[in-house]
Design a protein that fits this description.
This protein has a three-stranded parallel beta sheet, with helices on one face. It is flat, with a radius of gyration of 18 Å. It has helices at 4-7, 14-36, 52-62, 88-100; strands at residues 43-47, 71-76, 103-106. The chain is 48% helix and 14% strand. The protein is α/β, with parallel strands linked by helices.
């Protein structure tokens, strides 16, 4: 019987290699964020769209990868077309911030 790896065209052992790639990428991202945020920083402000890049950075900071006492606030700037109270981009970033438990501010 074919394995799940064979079903999706992956070679045997590809899942383990994929885990190694994810771990290496995570390590590189943590090191890069630590280089940008000085040691001992207590608060970080992040331009936050709620997308993959800002969400990943917010998660790394919030879970203590930068410093165990460092908190993150996400800031979102949205465009308010006439007659629209909360545009989709702002609503999406708010939803992502809430799901992450991230302090969030929008203008």
């Amino acid at each position: 019987k074919p394995t799940a790896a064979a079903d999706n065209g992956c070679k045997p052992g590809a899942a383990a290699a994929s885990d190694d790639v994810v771990a290496a990428l995570e390590s590189l991202l943590v090191r890069a964020v630590r280089r940008c945020v000085p040691s001992g920083t207590k608060r970080v402000g992040l331009l936050f769209s709620g997308g993959l890049d800002s969400g990943l950075l917010a998660r790394l900071i919030s879970r203590g990868d930068v410093g165990k006492d460092c908190t993150c606030t996400g800031y979102t700037a949205g465009f308010h077309p006439a007659g629209r109270i909360c545009p989709e981009d702002v609503a999406a970033s708010k939803s992502a911030a809430q799901a992450m438990g991230l302090e969030w501010c929008a203008e």
